[in-house]
Every structure is written in structure tokens, then in C-alpha cells.
């Protein structure tokens, strides 16, 4: 369930909504959109409470990309290699504002810097960039995770409307979005929960590409009634 277990609930909702849309009438679809809108409002209210004790905006001001490494605010003064230096015109929201209000105001005051920092964190996260790992470890990452990305893209291309494919990509996408809005941790605890779904999507992609070369499972193992 940690660190972002609620994402699984959102993915399950996407799965059932995708199945529902296949047979829903136009009137049912309108009702569903209203329900999704109401759920989004409730989620923002809940998020405002959950983010209360955290200091996200302060990490933006420090330009952190990966917490606890040279990609964080621990970078020596004057070094800009592994973190983004904020602009001199950076404006901070009022300290007494709510968590969601701080995020909104920080974006309103510093849209270019906010988007730049968010996209860099998202890119570093998905690239599985771990310069503090050994070279052998990074080579292993390159030859395992990156091919899985390619196969996952093939799975989405061929089965983009399948509810389970959409659910798996929801988990990966929301986890990436959470990192873009917060910060990746040094110990990969944000990447580890989505690796199984990347591997499963890659398996679907491999089945689409090379499945015709292998006998079907039910031909090898007869079905059991």
C-alpha cells in the first residue's frame, strides 16, 4: 500500500469504467461524467488534508529532483549539475495557505519553473536514472527496463481499449504524476511498485509480437473443468 497505495483504487475505477463504457448508453455516460467530476472534487478536498504536514513547495524552492542524493538540495553550494536552480524572481505562496492552495499559487507565480522542474523529475523517474548506482547496475537497468518500455508501448498500441491495459497504465501514469508533483526518493521506493505492471505490459507486448511462434497454453495443458 505504500507509498501511494490509493493509486490502485484509481486504477480499479478506470478498469470498471472502461468496461462500463463499452455497453453504456449516452445518458449513462453523462451520469458517469458527473460522478467522476464529483469524485475529483472530493479527491482534492482529501488531498488538501493529506498534504497538510508535507512541505512540497519548499522542495520546489530548493530544486530537488531525487531526494537524498546529489540530485537533491544536498548538492554543494554553487553546483548546478544535479538540481535545478530556481530563478531569482521565484515567488513563494503565503505560509498560512492550505496545501493545495500553496501548489496552485506556486504554479501561478512560477509557471515556467514549475513545469520545467516537474518534467525533469518525471523524465528522471521514468528513465530510472540512478547515477549513484554501480555501472553494472545501470547497464542491467538499460537492458531490462528499457526494452520493457518498448514492449509496453506496443501493448498499448495494439490493445489500447482493453480495460486491464488502461488500468495498468493508470497505475504507472499516476505514480509518475505523483513524483512530478513531489520528489523521487533515493531508494527507488516509488519505482518499485510499478515495475510489476511494466513487466506485465511488456509480456502482453511480447505476446502480440511473437505469440504466433509459440503454441497456445491450452494446447499444451488441457483445460480442467
Short key terms for the protein model shown above:
225 residues, mainly alpha, flat, two-stranded parallel ribbon, 2 strands
What does this 3D model show about the protein?
With 225 residues, the protein is mainly alpha-helical. It is 61% helix and 2% strand. The chain has nine helices and two strands, in the order αααβααααβαα. It has helices spanning 6-21, 26-50, 56-62, 99-109, 111-126, 135-158, 163-181, 195-210, 217-220, and strands spanning 66-67, 184-185. The chain has a two-stranded parallel sheet with strand order 1-2. The protein starts with 5 loop residues before the first helix and ends in a 5-residue tail after the last helix. Mean pLDDT is 80; it is low at 73-81.
How are the strands of the biggest sheet laid out side by side?
1-2
Number of separate helices: 9
Radius of gyration, in angstroms, nearest whole number? 21 Å
Overall mean pLDDT score?
A: 80
Judged by helices, strands and strand pairing, the structural class is mainly alpha
Number of β-strand runs: 2
Give the helix proportion (percent range).
55-70%
Cα end-to-end separation: 35 Å
Largest sheet: 2 strands, parallel
Query: Can you tell me the residue ranges where pLDDT is under 50 for at least 5 consecutive residues?
Result: 73-81
Morphology call: flat
| Share in β-strands | under 5%
Give the SSE order as H and E letters: HHHEHHHHEHH
Brief write-up:
17% of the residues are buried. The protein is 61% helix and 2% strand.
Fold blueprint:
Layout: H1 6-21, H2 26-50, H3 56-62, E1 66-67, H4 99-109, H5 111-126, H6 135-158, H7 163-181, E2 184-185, H8 195-210, H9 217-220
Parallel strand pairs: 1-2
Helix pairs in contact: 1-7, 4-5, 5-7, 6-8
Amino acid at each position: 500500500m505504500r507509498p501511494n497505495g490509493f493509486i490502485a483504487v484509481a486504477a480499479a475505477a478506470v478498469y470498471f469504467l472502461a468496461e462500463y463504457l463499452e455497453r453504456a448508453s449516452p445518458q449513462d455516460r453523462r451520469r458517469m461524467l458527473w460522478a467522476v467530476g464529483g469524485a475529483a472534487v472530493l479527491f482534492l478536498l482529501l488531498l488538501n488534508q493529506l498534504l497538510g504536514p508535507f512541505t512540497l513547495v519548499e522542495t520546489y524552492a530548493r530544486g530537488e529532483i531525487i531526494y537524498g542524493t546529489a540530485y537533491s538540495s544536498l548538492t554543494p553550494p554553487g553546483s548546478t549539475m544535479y538540481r535545478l536552480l530556481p530563478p531569482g524572481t521565484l515567488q513563494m505562496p503565503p505560509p498560512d495557505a492550505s496545501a493545495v492552495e500553496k501548489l496552485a499559487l506556486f504554479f501561478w507565480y512560477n509557471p515556467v519553473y514549475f513545469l520545467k522542474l516537474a518534467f525533469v523529475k518525471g523524465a528522471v523517474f521514468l528513465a530510472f536514472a540512478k547515477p549513484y548506482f554501480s555501472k553494472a547496475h545501470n547497464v542491467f537497468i538499460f537492458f531490462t527496463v528499457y526494452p520493457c518500455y518498448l514492449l509496453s508501448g506496443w501493448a498499448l498500441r495494439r490493445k489500447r481499449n482493453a480495460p486491464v491495459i488502461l488500468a495498468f497504465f493508470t497505475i504507472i501514469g499516476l505514480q509518475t504524476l505523483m513524483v512530478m508533483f513531489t520528489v523521487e526518493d533515493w531508494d527507488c521506493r516509488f519505482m518499485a511498485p510499478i515495475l510489476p505492471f511494466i513487466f506485465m505490459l511488456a509480456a502482453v507486448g511480447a505476446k502480440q509480437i511473437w505469440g504466433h511462434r509459440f503454441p497456445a497454453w491450452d494446447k499444451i495443458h488441457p483445460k480442467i473443468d
